[in-house]
């Protein structure tokens, strides 16, 4: 299967309320040979206040945010969706995409009335080169150089990892340059540690993760925390009853005799803390669950002989009653989210109806005056609100005065905040952040002054 390596540069790190400013992607074949590339930038949305630190990191100026030669955010997202559909089916991947770029991309598709699950439906799957780098650092530490951060700790940040391994990364934090660096690291890991590559790549399929955790054989779980890789001997022991992709694994450093007969309330406590017996892995996020043979040092790392690891795994997996109670404990530990106050937080409340899907397609093909009419016809209130916003942001003049005034109030609330409602960064938040940035980055005084002036006149 082909790969789509992609990256985003954004207004900040909030995957619900920040915005993509630059998107870049490279399509490769299964052997990582480039086939095609795509890149796009866009203007800033009026209700999004960028984080000053993000603008400095990506070298985006206020003038670039409002450049009339750039497409609107909505126009860019239509082009991105069209390109990604044309490249499907593929494995969509990047560097830390499963934790950041992917949630942000989903939210952006949702807000622009497009299929939220484009990258993992219709034959598409998802991977993350950061997972591969973490597994390589743990299982084949001599295969790649791991740089040391300014704080004296090992780091797998792409902007330092790629140069440490021979990639000329002068344009770090440019989306296309970061995609090129990611492909470079993917090739390096594939070529230097083929066993790690071939062990992790099947995990793009959540069914493979489930299969590996459904046996009585112990597995090696690779984790990476605060720059330090770890390998844990684990065995599957259940899942969340409402979310089967949320898997529980038993940390075999803990003696099953101490845990199997605990109450459900006590099992909830065993999901917390560094020495917890129950750990959570997500089957749809490429967890590094591999065969113990890939980690010869696993017994020493877990301070147990392999025979005892195997015995404990068999004891845990044989206790079906324990597995059922783990499910109950997970449901208590991770209850349903409270209803969100703003539409951005309601993305997972359900799929659009077939009728609303048809309205979305018609909306995208229509002129703005017609889009204003279509916006009022959505059955689902979420999509009705999002469609109205799209019209307001892109062509407010076609809206009735009453509706336009309502949305102007919404825009003012977003920029200045509203009591009891958290909905992204406000102007006051950005100015406060700017004061911290001024102290931390005195060399960027000219750029900081330009950002401050722009925020003051918004």
UniProtKB/TrEMBL annotation:
Cofactor: Mg(2+)
InterPro entries referenced in this protein's UniProt entry, alphabetically: Exodeoxyribonuclease_I (IPR023607), EXOI_SH3 (IPR034747), EXOI_SH3_sf (IPR038649), Exonuc_1_C (IPR058561), Ribonucl_H (IPR013520), RNaseH-like_sf (IPR012337), RNaseH_sf (IPR036397)
UniProt cofactor note: Binds 2 Mg(2+) ions per monomer.
Binding-site residues for Mg(2+) 1, renumbered to this chain: 7
Top-level division of the source organism's lineage: Bacteria
Entry annotated with the keyword Hydrolase: yes
Any Gene Ontology biological process: DNA replication proofreading
Ranges where the ExoI SH3-like domain occurs: 194-334
Listed name of the protein: Exodeoxyribonuclease I
